[in-house]
Hints:
The protein has 401 residues and is mostly beta strands. It has helices at 17-26, 121-132; strands at residues 64-65, 72-87, 92-113, 138-160, 163-174, 177-178, 189-190, 193-206, 211-230, 241-263, 266-284, 287-288, 300-311, 316-328, 331-332, 342-343, 347-358, 361-368, 376-379, 385-387, 392-399. It has 2 helices and 21 strands. The protein is 5% helix and 55% strand.
Amino acid sequence: MNFNLLNTPFAGPGFTYGNLLCSFLMAPYDGGCEGYGGSPGLPGAGTGKFPYLFPDIGVQSGANAFGLPGSQIDTSAVSAFATATYKITDAFALTADLRWDQSQKHLVYSQGPLAGLGGNAVPAAYLDPLFAQIFPPFSTDETKTFDNVAPSVTLKYNFEPVKMVYATFAEGFRAGGFNVSTEGAQYLPYGPEKAYNFELGTKTIWLDGKVSANADVFYMIQSDLVEPETEPNVPAFLDLYYLGNVGTAHTYGAEFQGVWRPVRWLDLGATAGWLDDHIVSGSSHGVSLVGQAIPLTRNWTINLTGDVDYPLSNSVSLVGNIDYRLEYGGWLPASYNTLETTPYQDFESLDADVGLKVNRVRVSLFVNNAFNDIIPQFQYADRVENVNEGRTYGIRVEAKF
């Protein structure tokens, strides 16, 4: 990185771009470069004064780093699973599952200035204190162990061999872990998240197997919900995020899935899902999140599909696939003081391919996201956005062995 700009005059020879950097960006952190608030400041001026001249630092090969050489996370996990079914009657059955998981994570981590900063001691004297006010150097060596026992119980009733209704309770578990790009050690670890799901549903087959239709409704409780939070002690332009446990959320939902095979060479499918989710307790950095939706969840998702495998001869088939998807509703995450920051834009996508299958080889033309619908998928605190991939197309060759 070329630091020569720090020594370039901004407002006369006594006020360089380096002074400007200290004045506007560093002032909230231990007094900035001038040394207010007990900070030693930088060489060249004295407490309460700007350094009149930054040295000719030039091009450097290193600076402060998240995860200095030797930093690592080691993970070990073990689990056990048991299931049993009791037939109450020929049509009525009870199934119980029990799963035990243990995950252990060992973190060795250091952050701070890279030794030498290109072998020049002068920039270390100026840049190390500058970076250290935002990213304090520290090292840690710690281990976290996460244990969980997750039961599930399902009651099934078969009306006939191809029609069934069920009721399920199941517990889910997500182990905690470590963040490895944070301003301070207090934001490194985060705890586990648990989910408790209650579901009623049915699975059916009709018209001698030509039609299948499944539907369910569910209610889920998530405790110690893990969500990204922004670092509160660094400037927003740095875009520093970490995972944290923010509270408890409740979600209501319904799903439908159907498949129809009108002829042997054609399958038509449709799925639809609806979610209503809200955080019912919790906060982020002292700001309540009650009533907020869980970021990056959709209120509605709809999929329509078609698959063709039409035989032209004993060894050649016309093949194709089309997949239409519509998503709408929901919110994008960004700043730590409110999760509902920007509405999640509606998304409409069409993927398709068509070609020939000759024995075990398939050659097809394809297009993904044919509508070229590009929307934000994540928004940072400074409004910078990640987006989905736009329209792509090409030729695909597949072979089965």
